[in-house]
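Hello Y.,

Per our agreement to keep a running log of every chain we model this quarter, I'm adding this entry. I've kept the format consistent with earlier entries: sequence first, then predicted structure.
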Amino acid sequence: CLGRVKNYSFTGGYGFLCVEDLGVDVFFAKRDLPDNLQEQSLVGQPFRFEVSTARCGKRQATNVQWLGGFLGESGGAAPPPPPPPPPPPPPPP
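Predicted structure for the entry above:
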């Protein structure tokens, strides 16, 4: 499955992935993330994962893999680069 992080609390140790194909959010645990991402703001970040059924019967993400993107304070995508500066005016005649 593919999804984006809807919310994540690294202090709480869990979050939810929004999965449009399933029409539901899928739980994930901090321990299922790559080590270098466990303390990051991940809201909006894309991930690939498998869906399994937890002991409680709810869907849970496993084999969670980050698909890349910008990890900023907002956790969203990188802002677009600024436009190039305008060309200088032509010299006077």
